[in-house]
Amino acid sequence: MVMGPTHALSGVAVWMAGAAGLQLCGFAVPSAELAVGAAVSAGAALLPDIDHPSSTVARTFGPVSIALSHLADRVSTTVYNATRMAREAPRTGGHRTLTHTAVFAVAFGGLVSAACGLLGKPAAAIVLFLMLGLAMRGLMGRWARRQSWVVTTLVTGAAAVGAAWWLPTGRGYPVLGLAVAVGSLTHCLGDMITKQGCPLAWPIVHRGKRWWEFALPARFRIRAGGSFEKVVLVPALGVLTTAGTVFAIPEVQALILSG
Q1: 131, 40 in Cβ contact below 8 A?
Q2: 209 φ, ψ (degrees, to nearest 5)
Q3: Distance between CA 123 and CA 164 in Å, rounded?
Q4: Which residue in 88, 19, 42 sits closest to 243, CA to CA?
Q5: Quick check: 41 and 183 in contact, CB under 8 A?
Q6: Helix axes 31-44 and 4-24, enclosed angle (nearest 10)
Q7: pLDDT tens series, the chain, 259 aa
């Protein structure tokens, strides 16, 4: 799989690029929602790997997230084996199955939007806590690895409270559900450029398979953690994030032009 920091950075890059596109089309995104959405998208770009008990996601909140990861692995394995076609071999592990599909990304994003619309800021605070925790693991991995999960959880809690306070009241916060869906889909796109691919289109049947893997042609796929990812992909995502930020936030453009 693509490394956790790359997944998280890709979530920010795609979110900011999308916001820049909206800005250029005349649809401004409020600064608070733009910033919070970028952080949530970064966290959600790690979320699909909750089906892997050894992943960065599983270690985020200590024994709680590890237990959830094992549960996600079992549910994913069950769904795979229950829906696989005759040409697809049974599996004992669920990594890169259910949580790596467009259905999961859209459904989970919709669930987040519904919960925030119904319950307001309390639900938004919970979503922020979970996604900011993942984002911290991805974007601040070296620091997070040096701390106990208790410390990172406390820091995440403080950040979530601040972010929830910053968001305007009475808005329903659909931006959070959108950011979760965008981040999750971005994760799948990242996995599609690696050797294994990703079953993005499940449950659509193609050539006798329901869990067939979307992937680039073999000659264009990269090795996860290899030199291309570190030397080319990560800097390119950084440039995309910077450019998206400049075009998405008029104040940044004004600051650059005034300088």
Answers
A1: yes
A2: -130, 140
A3: 10
A4: 19
A5: yes
A6: 150
A7: 457 788 999 999 999 999 998 888 888 788 888 889 999 999 999 999 999 998 888 989 999 999 999 999 999 999 999 999 999 999 999 999 999 999 999 999 999 999 999 998 899 999 999 999 999 988 888 888 888 889 999 999 999 999 888 887 776 789 999 999 999 999 999 888 887 789 999 999 999 999 998 888 878 887 777 788 888 888 999 999 998 888 887 777 667 767 5
